Fold this sequence. Notes:
Blueprint: E1 22-23, E2 42-59, E3 62-63, E4 69-83, E5 88-104, E6 110-118, E7 121-128, E8 137-147, E9 174-184, E10 189-199, E11 203-206, E12 210-213, E13 217-230, E14 233-246, E15 250-251, E16 254-255, E17 261-273, E18 278-292, E19 295-312
Parallel strand pairs: 1-19
Antiparallel strand pairs: 2-3, 2-4, 2-19, 4-5, 5-6, 5-7, 7-8, 8-9, 9-10, 10-13, 11-12, 12-15, 13-14, 14-17, 15-16, 17-18, 18-19
Amino acid sequence: MIRISFILLMLLISQSVLSQNCCSGGVPISSNIGVAPASKNTWQTILIGDVNFLDQLLRGPNKINNDSRERTTASTLLLLNYSFSNRISADLTMPWVSQIRKTEGANNAIFKENSSGIGDISILLKYQLTDPQLTASSFSLGAGIKVPSGSTDQQDSDGITLSLDMQPGTGSIDQFYWFFYSNQFSNKTSLFLSALFQQTGTFTNYNGSQEYKTGNSLVARLGLNRNFIVANYITTLSMEFIPRKNWADHVDNQLIPNTGGHWLFIKPALTFNFSPSVLLNLGAELPLYANVDGEQLSSSKRLTIQLIHRVNTKSPLNSEL
């Protein structure tokens, strides 16, 4: 039986977006999909708080000196993972999305748009090709689906429907393809590599009659973990390099300007292992390089926190929370 023991926090998500001066290069829900394999009969309950600040206006790879626009995209995600065997597992990701966009107009007037609500739910099935009992390496593949459970019709204070990038949902059914590899070099050091390709579907009722297709995305993670003992707890220092590509959006098969691009992020993080069943991860994701299509707002920083609870239903392990 799952025991969810958490108290936490807030916050992430940003999608490729719409018309002039769009926001891109934030990290959508797909970046939180895909948990490393665990042993048979293990439940992992993960509460993720993630906030992304988009306040750099770019034209291609160049920063524009203009601070009249900014956007904060945020969500809390509940991720449930269960390992049916040492090879087969499944993830369920349920997000709550919150977004605020500010624009400075004439006479320093500030215009705000905001939205919040349940986002699109994702399911991922995974298979571990290697036998974890025979090798220090782990190699897994997975595939999944995102269903349009989030709303797409929220309105601003004037009763005007918000643009699709400001909605909690996307209105489309998407497919995910996932890859994960890790290698344990010693008790202290491990390397991991993961990648997730999101093949987006089409929102067929955009503006009541149009078809909107958010661009596909590909995000990879290459990281190194190093364990230390701090105050009698195992503490893991990790460093990740995260390349990302977003393809451009389309409406009725017509390309939307100012959508899509390439990014490279670096993410240092600390994980505190309070016990075999309770872990806390803190991370900060910073851009090393960005090259957007056209002119877009892009991320300047992203902060994450994860509270992880593991329990094996076939073992006498008891939760500390």
